[in-house]
UniProtKB/TrEMBL annotation:
GO terms for biological process: mRNA splicing, via spliceosome. The keyword Nucleus applies. Keywords: Nucleus. The lineage of its organism: Eukaryota, Fungi, Fungi incertae sedis, Zoopagomycota, Kickxellomycotina. Belongs to the BUD31 (G10) family. It holds the Pfam family BUD31. It comes from Coemansia biformis. This is Component of the SF3b subcomplex of the U2 snRNP.
Length: 149
């Protein structure tokens, strides 16, 4: 009986242009490690994950800008980045829709996570809030991601 070859599905070769992105993505990876290992002493319970959320947003925004805004990377490279977890496809899909261009995280638009079944306070335009009121999102620490700000 012939020997069965093991498939090499998990290790596909990166597409052309990966060498240009890799140093920046390595920096984001290091920032993420630092954010995960950061001490939570002296912080509120919800504040301990904010730095991780910020790095996640920055990394996804970097890939989004390269592909959709500057058109500097190919579709194949973009798909490779999404597939390997370097960018959040769901967050990028929301950024492409009108009214969600500045969205900080997906938790801010999930109505089930709020007390009144509405969006997060950071999604309210600053013009509609009281003068001088500082808004801070509980989920990610955002101070306002409404598209009209």
């Amino acid at each position: 009986m012939p020997k069965v070859q093991a498939s090499r599905r998990g290790k596909e070769e990166p597409p052309e242009g990966w060498s240009d992105l890799e140093p920046t993505l390595q920096e984001f990876k290091q920032k993420m490690r630092d954010a995960e290992n950061e001490s939570a002493a002296g912080k509120r319970r919800v504040e301990s994950t904010w730095s991780v959320m910020r790095v996640h947003h920055q990394r996804s925004r970097y890939i989004y800008d390269l592909f959709y805004k500057r058109k500097a990377i190919s579709r194949k490279l973009y798909d490779y980045c999404v597939k390997n977890g370097h960018a959040d496809a769901n967050l990028i899909a929301k950024w492409r829709k009108q009214g969600f261009e500045k969205l900080c995280c997906l938790q801010c638009i999930q109505a089930r996570d709020t007390n009144y079944g509405t969006a997060c306070i950071c999604r309210v335009p600053k013009a509609k809030l009281e003068e001088g009121r500082v808004v801070e999102c509980v989920h990610c620490g955002c101070r306002g991601c409404a598209s009209t700000d």
